[in-house]
Amino acid sequence: MFSKILIANRGEIAVRIMRTAQEMGIRTVAVYSEADRQALHVLTADEAVFLGESDPASSYLNFDKIIAAARETGAEAIHPGYGFLAENPAFAERVASEDLVFIGPPAEVMAKLGNKTTARRLMIENRVPVIPGMNTAATDITSLSVAADELGYPVIVKAAAGGGGKGMRIVESRDALAEAAETAASEALASFGDGSIYLEKYLEKPRHVEFQILADSHGNVVHLFERECSIQRRHQKIIEETPSVALTNELRDRLGAAAVAAARAAGYVNAGTVEFLLDESGEFYFLEVNTRLQVEHPITELTTGLDLVRRQIEIAAEQPLPFTQTDVSRRGHAIECRIYAEDPACSFMPAPGEILFVRAPEGPGVRYDHGVYAGFQVPLQYDPILGKLVVWAEDRTSAIERMIRALKECVILGVRTPIEFLVDVVSSEPFRSGRTHTGFIEEYFAQWHPDRVLDDIAVLGFVAHEMAGPGFAPQGNERARADEWLSPWQRLGTWDLGR
Amino acid sequence: MEYKVKIGPEIYTVEAAPLDDAGSTNMVLEGETLPVSVRAVAPNHLHLRVGDRTANLFVARTSEGRWIWIDGRARLVQEAGTVERRKARGLAETPCEVTPPTPAAVVRVLVEVGSEVVKGQGLVVVSAMKMEMTLVAPYSGTVRAVNTQVGAQVSPGEILVEIDAGPEGSKDE
């Protein structure tokens, strides 16, 4: 087993990986950019190495600097988290060539699956059903236009080099294709360093159902059941749950078998996710394989009781899986809500800024993986995820009630977040009855605006806060240091109003 | 004492007598008298009782006002006088200026001075947090000035493209 690993990532996922490493007795190395000097992952690690300027190319995407940081600290393995270099085969290759271990699948497997068109061809050869679409990427508008005409609109433009909703656009008609293709290619280039794109037929109202798989280097492959991730905005998941209400046991078995077949076909090793779209008739189609730890992995951990990061590290250390498919079971229901710095009332626009106050939700069945604290500046340069709120309960109804309760306890002030929106979505009748599909937000919440039901209390609270006087909170700057805070506060003594 | 308080476009008037030693008072909100008790739990934490309702409020001050959190709902609450002086723009309305909604970097400029544009046409593409957004023409007309270039870091309020409204544009306005 490794004695020290480097985590080539930031934010909540870097913190989450470090926690398991610490539990395994493995020392951790953080890397950080200018914008992240005071970030939580830097404060959590045993050691931290500065990479450079805040732009990703100079920091979290920079091979040379990350390898040098591993060399300098004596780390034996690198965990890439998700995003950044997690699905970059050139980086995995480079890590291996430096006699370091990449905690993830081998570079060639990643290359095969990371290229979405190659992956489609591989699945077709192995009889896994795929969505009608192009099996080779294109960059010129002429061949895209021809393919789109053959498929019939609407079509979806996708980045060939990566997933996660980056570089993805739905195109309703021929005259919108050129602009969508250009934007998608540019976003793909920025996110994956490769601007090639391809088209698939756009399915109406599909559910997104994915299977977690684990494969060791000894040929053992298991799946850890599904996650339904249909609630999306801008093709990015925001609410995930397991089990999916859409799967019968028979369909679950077929999908699980297809996921394991896909992993075997690719020679997969380590943790991965096979994504499917499920249409209203129960037909399923291979979407892609994500060759990394998923953002939403905690819901699988809560229902199966397995620590996926621990399995990833053990597999990378060439240990065999200590269980087989029949040993894997699960219990209860888990839901995750992603919390981004964004404004749900304004097209989910990113909302960077300074976090002024946070208070973590607590209590039975609640897990909060996050990377923020009061005083942290949410940087403009990176994906705006702040954290993930995950709950477990014995059944779906209880899990929904628990999620609503936990969201109401999850205080973040200073930047706009979707917490209020998430409360409304999870509380809604369509969500409760499980009528979820990838267009759910557009169908039910397109015109969402904050409810004014508690505004009277907010108004009275403002006045009460004002009247409680300068002693209640210091005038002016909220960023006052803790010791400056304390003195006027302590002077209040037993000041205790309104028994 | 009378307070004028604003949440979004709504202005509320509150009359409140001073707090007594127990932290209780009566407040009149839009004509309705409500018994209110306040308890300071921590610098950012207020426990409020209004009639038979109770709530934990979390408060953070900013230069613009106070963020107040109640049961998952965060509100930026402002003194109405301050807001009027600032002439804050209605956020829910269609933007009438070509400015980014968030700090961003300019990725592409799609028009040049003299370009004829129609309402809704893309003018500038900006990128923030790895997402691209196209800023569109709020009305039809002729581009008078392009005040930015590819690679520039831009902020809300900066007018990136100025447009002289054409005949159709003026009709719309």
Write the layout of secondary structure elements.
The complex is a heterodimer of chains A (499) and B (173).
Chain A: E1 4-7, H1 11-23, E2 27-33, H2 40-44, E3 47-52, H3 63-73, E4 77-79, H4 89-97, E5 101-102, H5 107-114, H6 116-125, H7 141-151, E6 155-159, E7 169-171, H8 177-192, E8 197-201, E9 207-215, E10 221-233, E11 236-242, H9 249-266, E12 270-278, E13 284-290, H10 297-304, H11 308-316, E14 333-340, E15 342-343, E16 349-350, E17 353-354, E18 357-359, E19 366-370, E20 377-378, E21 385-393, H12 396-409, E22 411-413, H13 419-427, H14 429-432, H15 440-445, H16 455-467, H17 482-491
Helix pairs in contact in A: 4-5, 12-13
Chain B: E1 2-7, E2 10-16, E3 24-29, E4 32-42, E5 45-50, E6 53-61, E7 66-70, E8 73-79, H1 80-86, E9 104-109, E10 116-117, E11 122-128, E12 131-136, E13 141-146, E14 153-154, E15 161-165, H2 167-172
Task: Give a short overview.
The complex is a heterodimer of chains A (499) and B (173). By secondary structure, chain A is α+β, with helices and mostly antiparallel strands. Helices cover 35% and strands 23% of the residues of chain A.
Rg from alpha-carbon coordinates of chain A: 23 Å
Count of alpha/pi helices of chain A? 17
The secondary structure category of chain B is: mainly beta
What's the total count of β strands of chain A?
A: 22
Biggest sheet features of chain B: 8 strands, antiparallel, barrel
Average pLDDT for all residues of chain A: 92
Gross morphology of chain A: globular
Mean pLDDT of chain B: 84
Radius of gyration of chain B from CA coordinates: 23 Å
Please report the two chains with the greatest interface, counting residues with C-beta closer than 8 angstroms to the partner's C-beta.
A-B, 65 and 67 residues
The largest sheet of chain A, given as strand count, sense and whether it forms a barrel, is:
8 strands, antiparallel
Please state the overall shape of chain B, judged from the principal axes of the Cα atoms.
Answer: elongated
In terms of DSSP E residues, the strand content of chain B is over 45%
Helix content of chain A: 25-40%
Element order of chain B: H for helix, E for strand = EEEEEEEEHEEEEEEEH
Strand numbers in spatial order across the main sheet of chain A? 13-12-9-10-11-14-21-19
Distance between the termini of chain A: 57 Å
Oligomer: heterodimer
What low-confidence regions of chain B span 5 or more consecutive residues with pLDDT below 50? 84-95, 168-173
